[in-house]
Design a protein that fits this description.
The complex is a heterodimer of chains A (about 180) and B (about 400). By secondary structure, chain A is α/β, with parallel strands linked by helices. Chain A has a single domain, classed as 3-Layer(aba) Sandwich (Pyruvate-ferredoxin Oxidoreductase, domain 3). Helices cover about 40% and strands about 25% of the residues of chain A. Chain A has a six-stranded mixed β-sheet, sandwiched between helices. In chain A, helix 1 packs across helix 5, helix 3 packs across helix 4 and helix 4 crosses helix 6. The longest helix of chain B has 18 residues. In chain B, helix 11 crosses helix 12. Helices cover about 40% and strands about 20% of the residues of chain B. In chain B, about 55% of the residues are buried. Chain B folds into two domains: about 180 residues, 3-Layer(aba) Sandwich (Rossmann fold), CATH 3.40.50; about 110 residues, Rossmann fold, CATH 3.40.50.920. Chain B is built from 13 helices and 15 strands. With about 400 residues, chain B is of the alpha/beta class. The chains are: A alpha/beta (about 180), B alpha/beta (about 400). Chains A and B meet through helix 1 and strand 2 of A and strand 1, strand 6, strand 9 and helix 10 of B. Strand 2 of chain A pairs antiparallel with strand 9 of chain B.
């Protein structure tokens, strides 16, 4: 039986979740040589509104590109969490921004909380790389893609001149993921 | 714009819109006129970078009507021309699409479908423009419309759209939907593609007839104004010289030729993909992104012991009526899931001509049709025809 792993990155428009999803898909498809799709759903607003980016990684064909049985859900806002948590599988992993999310729904999930936006702002000086910090955590926690693959995919995709910042954000995320895995 | 600039054989992760831009470049696009609209804007964004680098011209016009006019003018002047839009823009372009049909101007019009009517749902998928592609412009005319179901196929069908436009001197509609336009997936683009050039003039200036009734129905096309070729182009009914006419015989010839030149070669134009149709009892007819959900649904139906198959047209117009009819005579039921309220189901029913029941399933809430929804209809159809799934 082939493997299939579904990740949904959710939050609000402008948080870079579509980019993070595309990086994951590229890490899986180009560097790890699996199949991957990334699709998205967002509102008509340029900023704000619930936004999601679905990544499906498989070693088989991927027909339907929308996540239906999510293995890992990232929610950077309460609105996104409330809207999307029902698609998270029992036994799946729920990763939330602990500053943005106050109410956690009941469920048989493994929950990881971290203030991604605050960490990005305070430790890296840029709140905008919160998506890459979260990506690092997800990669180490889920093992859905190779860690080096994801780093290569990040560096190939982020704007020129921001490679170092993004590398630091990613590696910080990996460390957070290691801590979360150890705390289990 | 990222690293999509160079098409090549390396593995890439691309969206349908990016693949459409690259397909257009591979097909020899030299002119793009457009007006940005979600969810099609990445096509214009990418071409604004790719096209000037390759010596072509990119222009953002003041609106969609002007953009359609611009590509018609560019094509008459010898360019391979394209525009891309979504529902509201597609509506605005209809008058000029009719002009392109009447004046026989090859061009490609991409419509990345979103929810309608009117401004509807800018960021959400739909398939509500499939009949508009056929009959959005007034008067009798034939049209070619293609609908890809993956990123790789978007590249291929974009190239094909140009080739068909040049072969038949006609506008070709490429119907994506928001899912296909925005989904990113792994592709390896072909290094080379087959390109068709339009048939040049068959007579010297002065003797050249721009609308000659040739044997194949497609008049040879001179570059407007180049090498002494001057001729008249109009949306009015015209004779072989291109000047308006009220002669009933000429008008009849023209109207019939405009339809006949495409219909007579429908076998070359119509492409369908059949998946597990040989022994199928329940057939799903699906196109565009819905065909992906259908593909998963027929696989799951087979696992549940139901003989399900998929007929997936890559060409929507001319409609694959014979292909539908042939299967309608062999299967028990045809299920037609669409992101509209039965626009193609109606055509399927007409093509099946009562040979089997046709069950439409429409979703119009801005969300994609899911594999589970299609599987549910397959199960219902199997039950209704006495073909219960194995326990």
């Amino acid at each position: 039986m082939s493997f299939r792993y579904e990740i949904r990155l959710s939050g609000e428009g402008g948080q870079g979740l579509v980019l993070a999803g595309k990086i994951l898909a590229e890490a899986a498809a180009i560097y790890d040589d699996h199949n991957a799709t990334q699709s998205q759903s967002y509102g008509p607003e340029a900023r704000g509104g619930a936004s999601k980016s679905d990544v499906i990684i498989s070693d088989g064909e991927i027909d339907y590109p929308k996540a239906e049985h999510i293995d890992l859900l990232l929610a950077l806002t309460q609105e996104a969490l409330d809207k999307y948590v029902s698609d998270l599988q029992p036994g799946g992993t729920l990763v939330v921004d602990s500053d943005a999310v106050e109410r956690l729904p009941e469920g048989k999930w493994r929950v990881v909380r971290h203030p991604f936006v605050r960490t990005a702002r305070e430790q890296l000086g840029k709140a905008v790389v919160a998506n890459i910090v979260a990506l690092g955590l997800i990669v180490r926690l889920s093992r859905a893609v190779n860690e080096d693959s994801a780093e290569q995919a990040i560096l190939a995709r982020v704007p020129k001149g921001t490679e170092d910042l993004n590398r630091r954000a990613y590696r910080l995320g990996l460390d957070l993921g290691g801590e979360a895995a150890a705390a289990r | 714009m990222s690293d999509t600039a160079a098409a090549g054989t390396r593995t890439q992760v691309l969206s349908g819109n990016e693949a459409c831009a690259l397909g257009a470049m591979a097909a020899g696009l030299t002119f793009y006129g457009g007006y940005p609209i979600t969810p099609s804007s990445e096509i214009a964004e990418d071409l604004s970078e790719l096209l000037p680098k390759a010596g072509g011209a990119f222009i953002q016009m003041e609106d969609e009507i002007a953009a359609m006019g611009a590509i018609i003018g560019a094509s008459l002047a010898g360019a391979k021309a394209m525009t891309a839009t979504s529902g509201p823009g597609f509506s605005l372009k209809q008058e000029n699409i009719g002009f392109a049909c009447m004046a026989e101007v090859p061009c490609v019009v991409v419509n990345v479908q979103r929810g309608g009517p009117s401004t509807g749902l800018p960021t959400m998928p739909a398939q509500g423009d499939v009949q508009q592609a056929r009959w959005g412009t007034h008067g009798d005319h034939a049209i070619i419309a293609l609908a890809p179901y993956s990123v790789a196929e978007t590249f291929d069908l974009t190239v094909r759209a140009f080739n068909l436009a040049e072969t038949f001197r006609t506008p070709v509609i490429l119907l994506l939907d928001e899912i296909i336009g925005h989904v990113n997936e792994k592709v390896r683009l072909p290094e080379k593609v087959e390109i068709v050039e339009r048939k040049g003039p068959d007579a010297p200036p002065g003797k050249y007839l721009p609308y000659r009734h040739t044997e194949d129905g497609v008049p040879p096309m001179a570059v407007y104004g180049r090498d002494g070729y001057r001729f008249h182009v109009t949306g009015l009914a015209h004779d072989q010289t291109g000047f308006p006419t009220n002669n009933p015989k000429e008008i009849d010839l023209l109207n019939r030729r405009l339809v006949w030149k495409i219909e007579r070669r429908r076998d070359e134009i119509v492409e369908v993909v059949r998946e597990r149709c040989d022994d199928a009892e329940i057939l799903v007819f699906a196109y565009g992104s819905v065909a992906r959900a259908a593909h998963q649904a027929i696989r799951e139906a087979r696992e549940a012991g139901i003989a399900a198959g998929l007929l997936r047209p890559r060409t929507l117009w001319p409609f694959p009526d014979r292909e539908v009819r042939e299967l309608a005579e062999r299967v028990r039921t045809i299920v037609v899931p669409e992101m509209n309220l039965g626009q193609m189901a109606h055509e399927v029913e007409w093509a099946a001509r009562g040979a089997c029941p046709v069950v439409p399933f429409g979703r119009v809430d801005g969300l994609p049709v899911s594999p589970a929804q299609i599987l549910h209809r397959i199960r219902e159809a199997a039950r209704a025809s006495g073909r219960e799934a194995r326990p």
